[in-house]
Amino acid sequence: MSNTYKSAGVDKEEGYKTVDKIKKAVGETHNSNVLNHLGSFGAFYEIGGYKNPVLVSGTDGVGTKLKVALDTKQYDSIGIDCFAMCANDILCHGAKPLFFLDYLACGKLDSEVAAEIVLGMVKACKDNNCALIGGETAEMPGMYKPGDYDVAGFCVGIVEKDQIIDGSTIKAGNKIIALPSSGFHSNGFSLVRKVFPNFEEEFEGKPLFETLLVPTRLYYKDIHKVLEEVKVSGIAHITGGGLYENVPRIIPEGLCASIDAAKVKIPSIMLELEKRGGVSREEMYGTFNMGVGMIIVADADHAEKVLHLLDDAYEIGEITEGSEKIDLKF
């Protein structure tokens, strides 16, 4: 019997089935700027209507949150996470997402699972006026075990050059506004899984995995609702490393983000993890978003407008002079 690609562990037919299951839905994310369709070697996206456009790109994955999804066979939210982690990053510079590409790797491809993951991306793209214009599905026996998947994505957005937000206009006296997260988002799950090894246990009246798998919040509509009416000095996406690592990325030298931790609205699941795992509060803030998915920095007058525009936003601190870029007061 001769060797075939299938006998080596790669089933091309399953890949074709995956494409068939997602092709129509993916096409629904396309607009007139998308000049070709799935199946080409490259994806074409035409840019128009900008005076001095700058492309802003971001790439990310879902991390070990995937383990929770795979162990509980809940795949529908993971694609949303993948898109959100990329798109939320480029929002920090005032960009609007244009298009998204995904990368899905596995040990043995199951077209049903792969399609469910990609359809989550489709949902997120449609909700954010973004086109899913390409991707790659890699079946890699020997690299991944059957049933294992890894998911990553790449998002490109656009902003006028004179409207780029990079934190350079942040000044002492500016207010720091928190936009709540939907939970852990897609960070810190190596510690989450260590403290909560049983995803099926009950938490607040439902299986724990339902809380853990709540998808990363998408901030596109909130951020651009604000940017249409308010001048913003800085935006930070609070991902891995929490407030400690992400806020300083936008703070100019000689200034400090002075944050009152008592004002932060910490989700109950994070308080439970802190208690059960014996994790220090400082470690919690250096690992998780602690309920703050994004921050907006604006002067006092503009901050009031932000709070008026976004019902769930709230103030957690202000910019002061100082050599440390963040001072988290407990």
UniProtKB/TrEMBL annotation:
<dbReference type="GO" id="GO:0006189">
    <property type="term" value="P:'de novo' IMP biosynthetic process"/>
</dbReference>
<protein>
    <recommendedName>
        <fullName>Phosphoribosylformylglycinamidine cyclo-ligase</fullName>
        <ecNumber>6.3.3.1</ecNumber>
    </recommendedName>
</protein>
<dbReference type="GO" id="GO:0004637">
    <property type="term" value="F:phosphoribosylamine-glycine ligase activity"/>
</dbReference>
<dbReference type="InterPro" id="IPR016188">
    <property type="entry name" value="PurM-like_N"/>
</dbReference>
<dbReference type="InterPro" id="IPR036676">
    <property type="entry name" value="PurM-like_C_sf"/>
</dbReference>
<dbReference type="Pfam" id="PF02769">
    <property type="entry name" value="AIRS_C"/>
</dbReference>
<comment type="similarity">
    <text>Belongs to the AIR synthase family.</text>
</comment>
<keyword id="KW-0658">Purine biosynthesis</keyword>
<dbReference type="InterPro" id="IPR004733">
    <property type="entry name" value="PurM_cligase"/>
</dbReference>
<keyword id="KW-0963">Cytoplasm</keyword>
<dbReference type="InterPro" id="IPR036921">
    <property type="entry name" value="PurM-like_N_sf"/>
</dbReference>
<dbReference type="GO" id="GO:0005524">
    <property type="term" value="F:ATP binding"/>
</dbReference>
<dbReference type="InterPro" id="IPR010918">
    <property type="entry name" value="PurM-like_C_dom"/>
</dbReference>
<feature type="domain" description="PurM-like N-terminal">
    <location>
        <begin position="54"/>
        <end position="159"/>
    </location>
</feature>
<keyword id="KW-0436">Ligase</keyword>
<comment type="pathway">
    <text>Purine metabolism; IMP biosynthesis via de novo pathway; 5-amino-1-(5-phospho-D-ribosyl)imidazole from N(2)-formyl-N(1)-(5-phospho-D-ribosyl)glycinamide: step 2/2.</text>
</comment>
<keyword id="KW-0547">Nucleotide-binding</keyword>
<feature type="domain" description="PurM-like C-terminal">
    <location>
        <begin position="171"/>
        <end position="324"/>
    </location>
</feature>
<dbReference type="GO" id="GO:0046084">
    <property type="term" value="P:adenine biosynthetic process"/>
</dbReference>
<dbReference type="GO" id="GO:0005829">
    <property type="term" value="C:cytosol"/>
</dbReference>
<dbReference type="Pfam" id="PF00586">
    <property type="entry name" value="AIRS"/>
</dbReference>
<keyword id="KW-0067">ATP-binding</keyword>
<dbReference type="GO" id="GO:0004641">
    <property type="term" value="F:phosphoribosylformylglycinamidine cyclo-ligase activity"/>
</dbReference>
